[in-house]
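From the methods appendix. Each design record in this collection lists the tokenized structure first, followed by the designed amino acid sequence. Records were kept in a plain field format so they could be parsed without special tools. The example shown here is representative of the layout used throughout.

RECORD:
FOLD TOKENS (63 positions):
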């Protein structure tokens, strides 16, 4: 993505470059553990994995 940003901002003045750069300005950053804690898709993935493990044990017997 950096090369795309470089191409689209090439030859522009500082303010215009900053306006077109997705990495400029304020943003919210979360580390992996925080993101997994607040993300519903991470919750569903964990539930899906547990359900899949349960179904596998049920289908093939406990080992």
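DESIGN:
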């Amino acid at each position: 993505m950096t090369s795309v940003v470089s191409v689209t901002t090439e030859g522009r003045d500082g303010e215009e470059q900053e306006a077109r750069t997705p990495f400029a300005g304020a943003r919210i950053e979360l580390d992996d553990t925080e993101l997994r804690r607040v993300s519903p898709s991470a919750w569903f993935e964990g539930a899906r994995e547990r359900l899949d493990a349960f179904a596998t044990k049920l289908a093939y017997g406990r080992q």
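APPENDIX NOTE: The mean pLDDT is 76.
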